[in-house]
Automatic annotation (TrEMBL):
Protein's name according to its UniProt entry: Ig-like domain-containing protein
Gene this chain is encoded by: LRRN2
Biased composition (Polar residues): 501-522
Signal peptide range: 1-27
Ig-like domain location: 449-570
Segments for region (Disordered): 493-524
Keyword Signal applies: yes
PROSITE patterns according to UniProt: IG_LIKE, LRR
Keyword field: Disulfide bond, Glycoprotein, Immunoglobulin domain, Leucine-rich repeat, Repeat, Signal
């Protein structure tokens, strides 16, 4: 078996490519034997183990004259020398007559010398037995035609780390036996398909580290035997669809350290035999649906060290029946893996996800990987709550235990790599605990949405006419709904499920957008301007051909029955001349004028509720609503709730009947910039209205006392509770921008939701619902 193959089957993806450089496994070698010949001065002559490029073992008479500052070939070289080591000297030429007196010379190493012309070695008569020639780290700049014609048996040629900027089309002519060619780390700017015509047996090609920005179509078509291709560090920005055409035997491919922004899916379809793929250190932002599909021989995939990777989307990896190892590590912004990201990976055994920004790994992922044996999740900001239940220790907790055990029977045997370093960072009470030590009883059974901090920057600059792409993702249980709010306060939702039509004007209006702020943003009233807005199902907002008017604060909201999380991004639109800040500044100006257009109205009043609505025409993510019962002589507390961005109405519930209330709306952007929120914070005046709740209908004689008493009792109880909660110091600064919003009181007119009563009575498994996931109420006296 060939060394390349042996190591290709090893368990380390990086070794696959490392193996190409160091083909022989050291350590298990037999020791060197003495060789009694007249050896050149200062050199060492020994019989040493040696493996041919096709892995045949030899006891090789070896002359080692490395590191001797030689400028000339030392003499005498014994006639039966097999291996001649001359690396790290000062040679710029060789007496080729001496070499030709060595009929058994098989391996010649002149790396790290000063050769600038390859012919000084290969000229005149042939070195018929030479299999391996090391010329790395010399000063070669050009390879002329027929450079190696005198080396008909050569199997390995190492030319890396020279200054090669040109190679003649027929430079490699005559190398019919060549198996391995390293021309990486030179100055080549193009790849000439002609080079490879002379190399029908080539198996390994290292081409990386050359400033080649684009590979030609069908460039490698002559390399019918190629099994390993390394294209690392080349500056590739993309790959032509037919760039890899003809590489029928290719098993291992590395794109390490390039500038790819997408997975080159089309090009990869041309190499169906691929087993090992390394895409590490590229600029890929998303692994998208269908990126890796039906690669039926793929065994190992590396998606590590990507600064910009934020999300692995639904069905990103699908039907890879041979995939056993998947590495997605050291991606500082990767915070989201879709619960159905991995489909039909029936043989995946090892899933490496350490050192990302993941808060959880959804149980669905574990369930979808029947062969999974080990998972690595350490060095992630893990959230030990509902999404992580599969990882928790089982305890006597009848209700939860049952569901988990039936669903995750297989997932439970998965081994954690570095369990001592796999720690919870949320919730606070479980912080720094080892995930595997936390019991399922300690983990909450459901969880609020959370938009990871790392997924969205706080500022994004876009060139006028360019495309704005903002990725918002959130995990929660129950699964959250996501929507975006534009600077003008418009709510943009993804297209409803099953509808292939992207969010256009039609679907926007069907989602209940109500633009009423004609005065401040006339472009919002018409449908037309929103044709170029798109919200993708996963939560990505795309705006093509953006204009300066669209600069401003965009807020993503993720909401489920338990509450919501929001995150805002300031978008600046600038042209080539103007400075970045301009867009944001312009928006700020617009923002300063907003107050006049917000008007709080009472839409409907009941006995125990009131529906309030307002219009602002701006995205004001830190808006609050406060209310207070007014009695002539009693001091009553004021309650406050946050209003989700994009919301323009609120159902205030649990009011007392026949009572006067005063309600105030405190508009706040809070997120434009620190400066803006500070300067506006004090000057803003809340909009207030008063109303009186309806009278309770004349009671039936038979029910005379009880109902009213009960209702009052409940209300009083609630108030007491609220006071208690507020008294415990659970509060959030109004100015604080991107925090989590625990929205239990929020009542959208279109979608009525849980109210306090529900929260209190529906607490899981009988225990009190915890503050951290509950009311956002606080006293505001
Ligand atoms: C070269 O190797 C062959 C076979 O290993 C051997 O018979 C021959 O003597 C060697 N030639 C010299 C000059 O050592
Ligand atoms: C709720 O808080 C209590 C302590 O106040 C704690 O014992 C319990 O584990 C918490 N439950 C959840 C679901 O966070
Ligand atoms: C939009 O708001 C107006 C008045 O504020 C209201 O009459 C209309 O019914 C609303 N439309 C929708 C679709 O909610
Ligand atoms: C507002 O809340 C009350 C009390 O829960 C409810 O009866 C009423 O139907 C709600 N109104 C709307 C429009 O959701």
């Amino acid at each position: 078996m060939r060394p390349a193959l042996v190591l290709l089957q090893s368990h380390c993806l990086l070794c696959v490519f490392g193996a190409v450089v160091v083909p022989v496994v050291l350590g298990s070698l037999p020791p060197a034997l003495p060789w009694h010949v007249s050896c050149p001065v200062r050199c060492v002559c020994q019989i040493k183990p040696w493996f041919s490029p096709d892995s045949v073992y030899h006891e090789a008479p070896t002359v080692d004259c490395s590191d001797l500052l030689l400028t000339k070939l030392p003499l005498p070289i014994p006639e039966n020398t097999h291996t001649l080591r001359l690396q790290s000297n000062l040679l710029s030429g060789l007496d080729t007559a001496v070499l030709h007196g060595l009929p058994n010379l098989t391996d010649l190493d002149v790396s790290q010398n000063r050769f600038s012309h390859v012919r000084t070695i290969t000229q005149s008569s042939s070195l018929l037995s030479l299999l391996s020639l090391h010329l790395e780290e010399n000063h070669l700049s050009h390879l002329p035609e027929d450079s190696f014609l005198s080396l008909p048996a050569l199997q390995e040629l190492f030319l890396s780390h020279n200054n090669l900027h040109s190679i003649a089309p027929g430079a490699f002519t005559g190398l019919d036996s060549l198996l391995r060619l390293h021309i990486n780390n030179n100055r080549l700017t193009t790849v000439d398909p002609q080079w490879f015509k002379a190399l029908p047996r080539l198996e390994v090609l290292m081409l990386g580290g050359n400033p080649v920005e684009a590979l030609p179509e069908r460039g490698f078509i002559a390399l019918k035997s190629l099994r390993s291709l390394v294209l690392g560090g080349m500056g590739l920005r993309g790959l032509a669809e037919k760039a890899l055409e003809g590489l029928e035997g290719l098993e291992s491919l590395s794109f390490y350290d390039n500038l790819l922004t997408k997975v080159p899916t089309q090009a990869l379809r041309r190499v169906p035999g691929l087993k090992f793929l390394d895409l590490n250190k590229n600029r890929i932002k998303l692994i998208e649906t269908g990126d890796f599909q039906d690669m039926i021989h793929l065994k190992e995939l590396g998606l590590n060290n990507m600064e910009e990777l934020v999300s692995i989307e639904r069905a990103a990896l699908e039907n890879l029946p041979e995939l056993t190892k998947l590495e997605i590590t050291n991606n500082p912004r990767l915070s989201y893996i879709h619960p159905q990201a991995f489909l039909q990976l029936s043989r995946l055994e090892s899933l490496m996800l350490n050192s990302n920004s993941l808060s959880a790994l959804h149980q669905h992922i574990m369930l979808s990987l029947p062969s999974l044996q080990e998972v690595s999740l350490h060095s992630n900001p893990l959230r030990c709550d509902c999404l992580f239940h599969w990882a928790a220790k089982q305890t006597a907790h009848p209700h939860i235990e049952k569901t988990i055990q039936t669903e995750t029977q297989t997932a439970r045997v998965v081994r954690f790599i570095q369990p001592q370093a796999t720690l919870c960072s949320e919730p606070p009470e479980l912080r720094a605990r080892r995930v595997r030590d936390v019991t399922s009883g300690e983990m909450s059974a459901s969880c609020l949405p959370m938009i990871p901090v790392s997924s969205l920057p706080s500022y994004v600059g876009v060139r006028e006419g360019g495309k704005l792409v903002l990725h918002c993702r959130a995990l929660a249980d129950p699964p959250p709904e996501l929507y975006w709010v534009t600077p003008s306060g418009l709510k943009l939702s993804p297209p409803s499920k099953g509808s292939p039509v992207p969010t256009s004007c039609k679907s926007l209006t069907s989602e209940g957008i109500n633009h009423t702020s004609a005065s401040s943003a006339p472009d919002d009233t018409a449908c037309q301007p929103f044709k170029h807005y798109q919200v993708l199902p996963e939560g990505t907002l795309e705006i093509s051909k953006i204009t300066p008017r669209e600069a401003g604060l965009y807020t993503c909201v993720a909401e489920n029955a338990l509450g919501a999380d929001t995150r805002s991004v300031t978008v600046g639109v600038h042209d080539r001349i103007k400075k970045r800040k301009r867009g944001a500044a312009a928006n700020l100006k617009k923002f300063l004028q907003f107050r006049a257009d917000a008007r709080l109205e009472v839409r409907e009043v009941g006995e125990h509720f009131a529906i309030l609505s307002w219009q602002s025409g701006h995205n004001l993510p830190s808006t609050r609503l406060s209310w207070q019962a007014i009695y002539s002589n009693v001091h009553t507390p004021t309650y406050t709730t946050r209003i989700l961005a994009g919301t323009q109405s609120f159902n205030l519930t649990h009011l007392q009947a026949e009572t006067f209330y005063r309600v105030c709306l405190h508009l706040g952007s809070g997120e434009v910039t620190k400066h803006a929120s500070r300067s506006l914070g004090g000057s803003k005046k809340p909009q207030c209205v008063s109303f009186r709740t309806k009278d309770v209908p004349e009671p039936q004689p038979s029910l005379q006392l009880n109902p009213q008493l009960t209702s009052t009792a409940v209300t009083l109880l609630l108030l007491a509770l609220i006071l208690l909660l507020a008294g415990q110091g659970w509060d959030t600064e109004p100015g604080e921008g991107t925090g989590k919003h625990h929205m239990t009181l929020h009542q959208d007119i279109q979608r009525p939701k849980a109210v306090i009563i529900n929260q209190k009575t529906k607490g899981r498994d009988g225990h009190e619902p915890n503050l951290s996931e509950k009311l956002l109420l606080h006293q505001d006296c």
